[in-house]
Amino acid sequence: MSSSAAMPSTRRSSVRFASTAWQLAFTRALIHVILILIAIVEAFPLVWMILTSLKDTHEIFNTVLPTHIRWDNFPRVWFAMNFPLHLANSLYVTGLTVALVVGLATPAAYAFARYRFPGREVVFYAFIGVMMIPPQAILIPMFQFLKSLHMLNSLTGLALSFVGGGTAFAVFLMRTFFLSLPRELGDAALIDGCDDFQVFWHVYLPLARPGIAAVVIIQSLYTWNEFMFSSTFLISPDIKTVQSAVFQAVGQYATDYSALCSGLIIALIPVILVYLVLQRQFISGLTAGALKG
Hints:
Elements lengths: L1 H52 L19 H8 L2 H32 L5 H12 L7 H10 L6 H26 L2 H9 L4 H12 L1 H17 L2 H6 L8 H5 L10 H31 L6
Helix pairs in contact: 1-12, 2-12, 3-6, 3-9, 4-6, 6-9, 7-8, 9-12
């Protein structure tokens, strides 16, 4: 009786196991299909831009694939638009902005995470409030402010216009990261004779590299790709950044789409290189501190 009763139970267990395994396999396959579809949708603009950059002008709206690959579009853009100069301008603005944002936000975020002082929460939420202001709302006030400082039509003035909003977001991100680090490390360093600055510089700052990498990549992407401020605050053609210089391909009556897409692809290369160098620390920096706030 016991053996005959055990056999149906064993069959039910095997059937249940097979059903669960089939459900897991189906769920994984469905997730993979959804991710592939999302990847195709996300990659389509980039693929279209690459194909357009290799086309002749009369093929832009007539064919999907170029009938004759025009590699000469890239050197034409490189020399005709004086691309090296505009790349240097963008590198200067991006480098200065990132350096100022990281230099200001890192110690500020550490102070918000480790110290208690009067008005700490009010000041921190003021930083968050800055993130809520759309850039379009401060375009004219920022224009007047830079003009009063005689920094209009200046690469340094353009970089300073990015620092405010970039610092607010960086403080928000880095504070969460510092909260995820053990406080015992700092306490042990204080017992060993370190002062507060040495604890920050020698203990917490090396551990904060993933968070700093995340700030560097996010701020670099925003600054490099920004168009509205750069096209408004920079007037002289020689100090245009890459994005505003590429826009010169858009004419009043016609647009050179081949030149436009070729210039955008060239402008993408530095950003891709930065991400490839810092991608591992960038991912860990975004996920670190997710359980603490």
